[in-house]
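Milestone M4 deliverable, item 7.
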Amino acid sequence: MKNTFSGKSLLRLSATAVACSLLAACGGSSSNSDSGYDGETVTIRLMETTDLHANMRSFNYFTGAEDASYGFSRTALVIEKAREEQPNNFLVDNGDLIQGSPFGDYVAKQLGTGWLGQGNTHPIYRAMNQVGYDAANMGNHEFNFGLEFLDESIKGAEFPYVSANVFHFPDAEVDQDGNCLTAIEDHYNGNYAEFFENETPYYAPFTLVEKTFISSEGREIDVTVGVIGFVPPQIMGWDKSHLECQVQVADMVKAAEYYVPKMIEAGAEIVVAVPHSGLSDTGALPDYDYDYEENASGLLAQVQGIDALMFGHDHVDFPSAAFSDLPGANVKRGTLYGVPTVMPGFWGNKLGVIDLTYKVLAKEQHEDMRKGVITDLLSAKVKLMDIDATEGEHNEDPRIVAEVADEHEGTVEYMATEIGESDQPIYSFFSLAGPDLSVQLVNETQLWRGEQLRADGMFGDDNHLPMLAVAAPFRGGRNGVSDFTYVPAGPITLSNVADLYIYPNTLQVVKMTGAQVVEWLEMSAGMFNTIEDTNKEQALDNPDFQTFNFDVFFGIKYEIDISAAPRYEYDNAEPINPDSKRIVNVTYQGEPLDLAQEFLIVTNNYRASGGGSFPGVGAEVIVYEDPEETRNHIQSYLEFLGEEAQAGDGIIRFELQHDNWALTLGDTGYAPADVRLTSSPIALQYEAEHPQITPLNQKDEDGYELFNVHF
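Output delivered:
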């Protein structure tokens, strides 16, 4: 196998053949090249993993027990099965690989860049090298630990990495304290024609991989597969502390339009786009105004020259019924705008597969050729392959288990470190139905840290302003029934800290008015469906609205009237129902909230930089950026509480603020009988503590326990 960034031009489909191949993929007629075709074909299987998030083993480090529903050690067995089915194959990873579980944190924080620099290979790459990848793309979470750690990590990958929209920033100006003085938008001002010609990619924008495949006639054929990758431009805000003045980013679609023709010119016979970007209704490509869309996969599918799309970031499946009504999507055929497309879930629970079958030139036309012999696409078949979720290490690939064994045991031991003891459980099972200790504890930490900063005068002229905190339930069931925060009563360990706050976010402080706080909460209230006066079954929450965007404010009290229509929808800072209000009866220190009052609000870098597109929240309102991870502050806060508890019996006692916020149906008088909330089966142990919750004592098809919510 030969990897090249450029090379001589090979045979490429004409525009007519491209159009015909898309028809063929969708069951249409073949192209006009039949005169050079005598029945020989070649099928090439493209395979994708994505959003593994450092889950190398089927192991939950928060509970210290096996979880057979995910893990690369199981995915590796599916990859081998897929290769047995089709020996002509090509494997890519789509990023969000080295961060996301305590295993990834252990390697980054306890072993670190220095350990890698001593000639050690990151265990995730040791595992992936065993499986044999052909190429990989950067995800946004790759940058969470900084560029130095990332660059040292990928040195261990025995396959090429690509990212077409991250660039060096050599002329950025930095002051004596390391603060960036150059705004990226001022640097190139959207002039992409000049930008792409003059700026230097930080990673290879694309790679050309030449592989030998076997045709239906048993003939060896060399095919050059081009892989191009993309990362959300929002990394510049999400990981500002690591990336500002270090790199600059371009729009994904603009980068594709620039580089895909160059890939074809350089010899790519098949162009595979691997964007770490989700899928939303972004419209038709000619109408796109190049505004740094985060979820641009639907737009990329419309870029001419892309033959297959393998995307990620959303943690869902494509094709699936969830996208049946999305413009451009054909979930039956597995295409976006006619392009074969796949997204295989998260944490290694699935493998994405696209089988492309091409015509091969007639024998007399390629008698002495190995390259440039595939012509029209005859068919494209897309599928998702599930892992075996049966418990037992025998269902894990022993090669992977062996490769990560030392670091796995190191993670388990490290996560067992005790930092305190509590006499009550902390969980997020009912975090959507009312105040929740798992979220409150994060908010308490943020206020505690905020007051430390105030004491040091870190807010300058704003040091006198009142302070609020805001946090969300990060583990709210997005990734299955085990994806809830659960800290039983008893010793509190480092694993519990990671359970409470799974992301390596840093703490940031923004300044906003009471009116802006209400709008922030209105966006957060989009978490809930509009509840009607009916006895029919109704779901409490909107599944398209992720729980990590359900922000809960601490320091004020308020109600959410979900009989009203949502003012905002997910990821859209413009109101969809501008006359609707869900946030009511907001008070601060017992008085109605003064909408003109300014507040300091302690949050995280993801939200402060605009993550989730909350109205009014962005870089322009940030007044302080803490370099320390919020998780470290949580650990320090718990240790502080533990030290205070030593003056008594040594037990940390938390006090849940039950009146922090509440769901209501306003003054409608509604009495809906069946408003449902899904949660973990473990939640049954604690439902008696929540008078607004009644168990139905049944599970849904995905294993979630069902509860009724009362108002």
